[in-house]
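User: quick one
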Amino acid sequence: MSIEVKQLKKAVANLVVAGEMTIYTALEQKTVFSKCLDHNKELQIDLSAVSEIDSAGLQLLLLLKREANQRHIKLSLINHSQAVVEVFELLNLGNHFGDPIVLSANWKST
Amino acid sequence: MAKTIMIVDDSASIRQVVTIALKGAGYDVIEACDGKDALSKLTGQKINLIITDVNMPNMDGITFVQEAKKLAAYKFTPMMMLTTEAAADKKQAGKDAGAKAWLTKPFQAPTLLDAVSKLVLP
Amino acid sequence: MSDFDSALKIFAQEAEQLLQDMESALLTLETDPNDGETINSLFRAMHTIKGSAGLFGFNPIVAFTHEAESVLDKVRNGEQAIDAGLISVLLDSKDHTAKLVEHCLNCPDAALPDELAATSSSLIQRLTGKSPAHTLQSTDIPSPLLSEGGGNMSLDDSWLISLDFKYDALRNGMDPLSFLRYLKTLGEIKDILTFFPDMPQDAEMNPESCYLHFKIAFNSDASKQTIEAVFEFAADDCDIKILPPNSKVNDYLQLLDALDEDHVSRLGDMLLQIGALTANDVTHALNRQARARQTDMEPVKPIGEILIEQQVVQQPVVDQALKKQEQTKQKVAAESNYIRVDAGKLGHLINLVGELVISSAAMNLIVDRHGLSDAGDVAASMNSLVNAIRDTALELRMVQIGETFSRFRRVVRDVSNELGKEIELKIYGGETELDKTVVEKINDPLTHLIRNSLDHGIESPEQRLAAGKPAQGSVQLNAYHESGHIVIQIADDGAGLDSEKIVAKAIANGLIKPDHGLSQQEIYNLIFAAGLSTKEQATNLSGRGVGMDVVKKNIEALRGSVSIASFPGEGTTISIKLPLTLAIIDGFMVGANEVRYIIPLNMVDECIEMDARECEINETEHYINLRGHALPYLRLGDYFHDPKTESAKKRESVVVVKFGQDKAGLVVDALHGEHQTVIKPLGKLFEKLKCITGATVLGDGNVALILDVQGLIETAITRRKRTAAPPA
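Assistant: Done. Structure below.
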């Protein structure tokens, strides 16, 4: 449940979220996201290592998207893990985030 | 990753039936025979749902729920209370303590799985 | 060619002039938007350019100016206001029209360049305001969540579920996603909108609070209750609204139509019953109504309006339910539109009607006798009218037995407390009607029978539990009509009659011999015999003196009958059969000394011809030897008249009548058969007359006396005893 922040260049950061994005981790993760929003013009969130995401985690992503829109920050979610895809599909949220979701062939349909 | 459910009940037979039903449906199960035993087994591992009886020796279900809610790792874990038909006040007490879900005893396996599935699908 | 060219030139000049005018008109409007004549000139500009362009086949101009013209037409008619926004669009349109004209004049056959075409369509969209592109531009934050199929999810076969989670939902362990996943197991989520309008800005947003709201279009065959149950555990942490699919509305309407009138009650209950609402829907709406009532903050709305506002049910369903409610109310109102009438007056009316029936019969007879064929039709139609009046008049005195039944609730409650038993009284058929005079007289026998059931029938809770029955016993009162009679049943689910005890007691009391050979039913019937109480320990409720024999006699005095059915361990049912009214009697008419008598039919046991071998009169000891049994008798002619002089020649018959356990023979001269008749009570003068209860006037004008069988039997028995005693 850690977030690894790589500053690619000035005002462009890559965040790798690992472990769960749940109510237990939401507070901590939000602090990291907020800080990154404050200091960057472009954010890439790598979700490949998200093992579990619940409503609290989803809310964080929704908050990120809204803040990024309002502050004209370029936000892209990449490498959605199966857990994230499952939630996006459940809520039909793919279009909202507008990021391409790559499905690997061996994923079972949920 | 299978979801983990803890069942707390002083009746070994109920524990067994619940465990068989839950395992059959694909959950991992941790058993505890009363509130105290259950608390000692809450060691930080991921638990997706705690099902607890109300009347138990050593520590009753309501106290257990209150105590579990104090633990950082379990304060947001959904709790389900096993109540009897007559104990409407117990249901409210359970809700106040933090167990928002409940199941009325006696129940059959499909009813249990239905109730559990609303909170955690396997 | 020159003609066409010059025409084109004229068009160009004209268009230029018109557009110039249009521009100045628009600028005028900016300061004075209400100038009607200026607006008119705008309209005319576009109108004229469109018309001329059409002549030359300049379709791009026609297409574009047509839209502008339409908008200006609306403005001219006051349907649309002109504002700065519209003026600027129109100015752009004016410039664009000029470009279109230029293009068409320069290269009339070439297709419109893309750039011009794009401007055309974008201006048309701005003019008409219809375009999605337009709204997209004006919305600062694109919110695909709400706009994608958004506000109008009107999928006809879908349940519309809206979930508004409260801030604490997540903290309470309720994850909205879990419920949605479970919901998916019940059907198909056709569409789902996620929104979070009240999620604060980054700094204030608490990641452990829940800000999520969902609107879901859900296809499923599950019932509303089932769908609601999905969110059962979230009920405290979420406002849940479930609107049934439009396709279900028709089902609900049909169900409402078919709803039994007994079930038409409060709106919420009705909708609950047909499954259009759940108990929670109703509770929420009622709470809301109650809050409004308490706070005076908002007007108290009818429950139906609240339900529609909360989007848990469709308007047509509520309308239909209200309609049904209203219809039933009206019907009930019509039913309860009573007039209180003095019972005495009613009795008088019924007597008069009785007289009328008799007069009518008499008149018919006379009409027949004199062969007045032309009067015959009139008489016949009057006769049928009179019969209708008689039936209606008798119905006036009919009352429902329900009130009498309800009185026993108290009796049952008190008695069961006293006896330490748990007994429930169930009442069925309370709406069954019978004559008020019968109702009054049935009260005592009913009380006795119910007490019997409570005392002897229902076992103690311990005994019941031991027998595998619920601790609470039940006594059932039931009434229904059956072939012109009312049947009243008192049924208990107690131990049933103990035939061994009855037999033992009956033998002890000398009622039967040990080798009785009686059937089970005959043994049960013994409880109607005098002095037989099977309960070993008599309580102060029953079994003291007044026995079932008295009950039976009272009921028979009402020309009714009583029967018993009992099954060991299952209970006892006593059925009382009574005539609906005491005003009409099914009688058996006999004659003696030229006078006619009527014997209530249900008291007639058999009729025997006197000369038959099986029957022999003993004149001195006053009994008839009937098949070896001594039967007391009365010679009706001798009893009511002087002992007749010219006797023996006539063929006499014996009518055997019974009352309770007693029987007697009435010796008569003639048997006239069954006769239904209206009873006329005797006047005050004859009130004390023994053995006569009333009279009726026959069609021929003669009076027939209605016999009091009970009195006659007693008389016969005493006379027999008196005469039988001295020789002994």
